[in-house]
Each structure stands twice: as structure tokens, then as C-alpha cells.
Design a protein that fits this description.
117 residues; mainly alpha; 2 strands; globular
Length: 117
């Protein structure tokens, strides 16, 4: 069963206002096996599964990234917009598979600090 993405902006960008800008998106969103928002999941996928990430960009956005060159902020912004357009996840409880386009998804996990508090 699939669900529509009915989450706060923090779920998507990790910020309450939806901004993902900055000098280096790769520093703002550290690579982790348990990303806590969609942008961090995309950055982590790029680092951990570069071939799959490039294939996803090609399918979702219609253009190719150069092998070995990190994606810039624009690519992540466009992928985030693709996520919003596709508007599909597999569950409403973490970990949540958020679909970027047909055949490609990223996992978003619960914030561990919130669990402990």
C-alpha cells in the first residue's frame, strides 16, 4: 500500500522553512546510514550508492551527472521537487521509503534524539 506525503517541511529538508541552501550541501547534510530527512537521504545515497544515484537522477530529472563529480545544491533541490510531485511513500511510520520516481526511493528514519527525550 502507498501513501501520500503528508509530513512537515522538516521531514523533507530538515529545516522548518524548507531551505536547503548553503555553501556546501554535503557539509550541511552529513552522510549517514540512518538519514533523518529526505535531503540527507539523497546526499547519503549519492555517497553510498553513486551508480544508483546517477541512474535515479537520469530517470527523475532527465539528465546525466558526470561520474565522480558530486551533485550540487540544484540537483538536490530538483530531486526534492520530484519527491513532492511523485508524492508517494510506503508507510507512515519510520523507516519510511520515500519515492523519488518510479523504481527509486530513499529511506528516512526517526530522529533518535526525539525518541530518547
Amino acid at each position: 500500500m502507498s501513501y501520500s506525503l503528508s509530513f512537515s517541511e522538516d521531514f523533507f529538508s530538515g529545516t522548518p522553512d524548507g531551505e536547503i541552501g548553503g555553501d556546501d550541501i554535503h557539509k550541511l547534510y552529513p552522510v549517514t546510514p540512518r538519514p533523518q530527512n529526505v535531503v540527507q537521504a539523497l546526499v547519503s545515497m549519492e555517497a553510498r550508492q553513486p551508480k544508483e544515484f546517477r541512474a535515479m537522477v537520469k530517470k527523475a530529472l532527465g539528465y546525466s551527472l558526470l561520474k565522480g563529480q558530486p551533485a550540487d545544491e540544484t540537483v538536490f533541490w530538483e530531486l526534492l521537487e520530484a519527491v513532492r510531485e511523485f508524492d508517494t511513500c510506503d508507510t507512515l511510520t519510520p523507516p519510511i521509503s520515500v519515492y523519488v520516481c518510479e523504481g527509486y526511493s530513499v529511506e528516512v528514519y526517526e530522529d533518535i534524539e526525539e525518541e530518547v527525550a
